[in-house]
């Protein structure tokens, strides 16, 4: 399984990098691990890592 090492903010006018190893929220679900990252611009990017 490849983990995303380079995350960028999903906001259209923002291309900041997000620290993949330090999500604001990490939550395990049956579909995988959901992580939420809060950018300095205020946008929240959510990723799902499938096991
Ligand atoms: Zn941003």
What's the gyration radius in Å?
11 Å
- The largest beta-sheet arranges its strands as 3-4-5
How would the global form be characterised? elongated
What's the end-to-end separation, in Å?
7 Å
Overall pLDDT metric: 87
Largest sheet: 3 strands, antiparallel
Bound molecules: zinc ion
Helical proportion, percent range? under 10%
Order of helices and strands: EEEEE
Count the E strands. 5
Domains, number: 1
Strand content: 35-45%
Structural class: mainly beta
By DSSP (H or I, 4+ residues per run), the number of helices equals 0
Question: Unreliable stretches, pLDDT < 50, 5 or more residues?
Answer: none
Structure description:
The protein contains no helices and five strands. The protein is an all-beta fold and 51 residues long. The chain has one domain. The strands form two sheets. A three-stranded antiparallel β-sheet has the order 3-4-5, with no helix packed on it. A two-stranded antiparallel sheet has the order 1-2. The protein is elongated, with a radius of gyration of 11 Å. The protein binds zinc ion (ZN). The site of zinc ion (ZN) has 7 residues, from loops. Zinc ion is lined by residues 9, 11, 14, 16, 39, 41, 43.
